[in-house]
Design brief:
The structure holds two protein chains of two kinds.
Chain A lengths: L1 E12 L2 E12 L3 E5 L6 H7 L8 E6 L2 E2 L5 H8 L2 E4 L11 H6 L9 H4 L7 H13 L15 H15 L3 E5 L7 H18 L2 E6 L2 H4 L5 E6 L2 E7 L5 H5 L21 E2 L2
Chain B lengths: L1 H4 L16 H20 L4 H18 L7 H33 L7 H16 L2 H12 L3 H25 L3 H9 L4 H35 L7 H10 L3 H29 L1
Classes of the chains: A alpha/beta, B mainly alpha.
The complex binds adenosine-5'-diphosphate and magnesium ion.
Magnesium ion binds next to helix 1 of chain A.
Chain lengths: 267, 269
């Protein structure tokens, strides 16, 4: 069964029809790169996949649970199995790197926040958090404030937080867009190594063509709120990917036209 | 080049003065009418002001030198004033935290809760501390408890408002990251919002202590305990020299505390 199944997904913000009938299926343990120019709706799609945004219409099925419209405890238990890595890292300021990693366990067992405070966290959890931090190569930074770290290091801390959460599905929203190219490549490689080790299902958005042509099993291309391209990476040429950046790409520039567009698919 | 020398009619600068709008005229005239009316109704005349100045000199003459005879009583009430301020502000700041989270757009459980909470906070702020003290003197009788309760109200009105404004300014990113792990509402508040706002809340709380100390001094004037009770009594019995001692004691305590508090604030931020 598919880990992620999205059917006829629509989402608007005010007058802007951002997602215009998204269809997407991702089998377990596949790594999909979501490619598209800025403003085409990638972030919105990712936010709809873990309930940070509520879709207006359509099905969002994660491991057999339709999360469109669920709330409260039910939503939290699904979210626990979906890790998210953000473009701007989203670490909590004024607390240590170690504390930030421990936050990955917030959604786990009862006890919530208290269980993740370094002073009273169970020894087993503290050890696991350190192991995650070590996996991303930052064990020696545990006691620092995250603002003392470089961007690449901050994103590694965020990855360590997701590692401790140990989700089945990983959503990454332009995880390297705010890093310089070298740090970005290193973080991208670390992220993909980790998801392969853990056998996670991945949807990772990127807006740089160069990176998209190097990573992942499959490329899904978005343009103006629709999916325009969906094929194994090996079968997609750079020219085809480049087409995603031509013409009207932003949802707020495109007239709201109904009806499906032809999707470039190849087996 | 020639265009700098020969002024063009199209480039004439705007007029030096602009005619005020009708609205400005109306506001200005109403203000002026009320001002004149007020001065006349209150019979503010040069002779009365001159007489007041003479009386003031007489008061100062009788107040000097300050009389330190009852220093022990004064010290005791000053201490009571400090206690009123400290207990009131501590309770007030602690209660402000839930009020602030209920009132902040990004943490309130429901828009209706937000509207009601904000109204309650605004009421606590706009009703002056002396009025609160009068109300609580009726409710719990004369003495420091009424003062403490008045300060609790005043502190919530002040601190909860600033806390909630700070909470509304937090970056949504960290909260979303914690929500994404499946964390509940309280975990997000405690884990992401508190760390970001704590320094600012501490600074606001220290301001509240300074404010509370100043109100605790005056609350005694309506019988709500503390040094104000002594000051009111001394004035009423024409013991101006004792009153002066009390005023000096207040000055020293409030100034000293403001110094201490701003030192702590510099350290926190
Ligand atoms: N929270 C929001 N409120 C209003 N409009 C939004 C919001 N999020 C996204 N949008 C609209 O959706 C468009 C696409 O945004 P986004 O999904 O962030 O695209 P991408 O991630 O591909 O750059 C934006 O240009 C904006 O008009
Ligand atoms: Mg985006």
């Amino acid at each position: 069964m598919e880990a992620i199944r999205v059917c006829d997904l629509h989402k608007s913000y005010g007058d802007v029809h951002v997602l215009r009938g998204i269809e997407l299926e991702i089998p377990r343990a596949e790594c999909v790169i979501l490619l598209g120019a800025n403003g085409c709706g990638k972030s919105t799609l990712i936010r709809c996949l873990n309930g940070l945004a509520q879709p207006d219409r359509g099905v969002v099925d994660i491991d057999g649970v339709d999360i469109a419209g669920i709330r409260g405890r039910h939503l939290r238990s699904v979210r626990r199995r979906i890790g998210v890595v953000f473009q701007h890292f989203n670490l909590v300021p004024n607390v240590s790197v170690f504390q930030n990693v421990l936050y990955g366990a917030l959604g786990g067992q009862p006890g919530g926040l208290l269980r993740t405070l370094p002073a009273i966290a169970p020894a087993e959890l503290r050890d696991r958090a350190m192991a995650c931090l070590d996996r991303v190569g930052l064990a020696d930074r545990a006691g620092q404030d995250c603002r003392q770290l470089s961007g690449g290091q901050q994103q590694r801390v965020a990855i360590a937080r997701t590692l401790l959460q140990d989700p089945d599905v990983l959503l990454a929203d332009e995880p390297v867009a705010s890093l310089d190219p070298r740090a970005g490549r290193a973080v991208m490689e670390l992220l993909l190594d980790i998801v392969r080790e853990r056998g996670m299902t991945v949807l990772c958005s990127l807006h740089q063509l160069e990176l998209a042509s190097e990573y992942g099993d499959r490329v899904v291309g978005m343009k103006a709120g629709r999916i325009e391209l969906d094929a194994p990476r090996a079968n997609v040429s750079r020219d085809v990917m480049g087409g995603l950046y031509q013409g009207v790409v932003r949802v707020d520039d495109a007239p709201v036209a109904e009806g499906p567009l032809p999707v470039t698919r190849s087996a | 080049m020639s265009s700098f020398n020969a002024p063009d009619a199209n480039l004439a600068p705007p007029p030096r003065f602009r005619r005020p709008s009708p609205f400005a005229w109306v506001v200005g005239l109403v203000f002026l009418a009320l001002l004149v009316q007020g001065v006349m109704v209150m019979e503010i005349t040069p002779t009365r002001l001159a007489k007041g100045a003479v009386n003031l000199v007489d008061f100062i003459g009788r107040a000097f030198p300050p009389n330190p005879a009852d220093l022990d009583v004064i010290a005791e009430s000053m201490l009571e004033t400090l206690y009123i301020a400290l207990v009131g502000v501590t309770a007030g700041v602690i209660l402000s935290v839930p009020f602030a989270f209920l009132a902040a757009r990004n943490t309130t459980p429901h828009i209706a809760v937000r509207v009601v909470t904000r109204f309650v906070i605004a009421a606590m702020r706009t009703i002056p501390d002396l009025v609160w003290a009068l109300i609580f003197v009726v409710a719990v009788g004369l003495g420091p408890l009424a003062g403490v309760l008045a300060i609790v109200m005043d502190t919530i009105g002040f601190a909860a408002r600033f806390f909630s404004e700070r909470i509304e300014e937090v970056h949504p990113g960290p909260s979303e990251a914690l929500e994404s792990t499946g964390a509940g509402r309280f975990s997000v508040i405690g884990g992401a919002i508190m760390p970001e706002t704590l320094a600012s809340m501490t600074a606001t709380s220290l301001f509240s202590v300074e404010k509370a100390l100043r109100s605790a001094v005056t609350l005694g004037l309506v019988g709500a305990g503390g040094i104000g009770v002594e000051l009111a009594a001394a004035m009423r019995l024409f013991n101006y020299d004792e009153a002066l001692t009390i005023i000096i004691a207040i000055l020293i305590c409030v100034l000293g505390f403001e110094q201490l508090s701003s030192a702590i604030r510099r350290h926190v931020i």
